[in-house]
Protein: Histidine kinase
Organism: Halorubrum persicum
Amino acid sequence: METRKVQVTGGSTYTVSIPKTWATDNGVEAGTEIEFHPDGDSLFLTPLSEEDRTRGTLDISDLSGQALTRAVTTMYVSGFDVIELEGPEITTEQRSTVREAVQGLVGLEVLEETRDRVVVQDLLDSSELSIHNAVTRMRLISLSMLEDAIAALSERDHDLARDVIGRDDDLDRLWLVVSRIFRATLRTPKAAEELGLPREECFDYHSSARQLERIGDHATKIAHLTLSIEEPLPDDVIEAVNELYGDAVEVIDTAMDALFADESEDATRLANEARTRVRAIDERVRAIDELLRDLDPARAQLLGLVVDSVLRSADYGGNVAETALQKAAPTP
């Protein structure tokens, strides 16, 4: 760490010198324009970039299938606006995989394809994206998925179960958008400034979005389990599972209300309510376990997995409540 003394020039202008090593490493010289970004009691400075969009190049010669999909997704989440995929000769299978990966990412489009190159570009303006709106949408989708998964289980509605499974892709797309926005705020203070949110708050949204994505995964798991059920389930067990679901939703909704609360007192009160309800759910789970003892082992195991997914969803709501408490705490 280096220190500099602030000096006054012209009687009213404060000046401070820049370390030469940093200036050299970042291409700063006489005449270079610098951007200043205030962040609380800190002030970040970066060289003014002439490039409006960040470009990344990836050699996909040895990539295919899931590995290629993950590579494209990783570059998207990392914040590249233009992704150039190159190889001596890109195969038809690789092109198909790239197109499928692009369809699962918000804003991406294939702009150019040649024998040895595929160019993908993000057509959305990052400054127009709202991490708050994305997390709000994730809340609606994940809770509707969980609701319909339990309804499909109760009514043995396989069509509804398949619909829940299909909606998981929408939730995953939003999760990747939130991750992309969050990583952008870590990389440059300009991104946080455009969002109009402190970076700590972006972290809180990102952490909560991860919990919502996991809730969606468990709703999908319940839907898959429902597809394997052929015979009616006992009414008392279905009723108990529905009551457990109702408790879990109360936890998640209350925790999300706490996260979005404008006043610290309201956020703290709601978050503590959600945490208390999580502890109360454990007693209901034990009661359901007693009911499952009377079933044959195969059905008891299947329903035990359903109960575990609902319980875990409530736990994820408790994690959101913990994040809301941290968000509401005084800033050092």
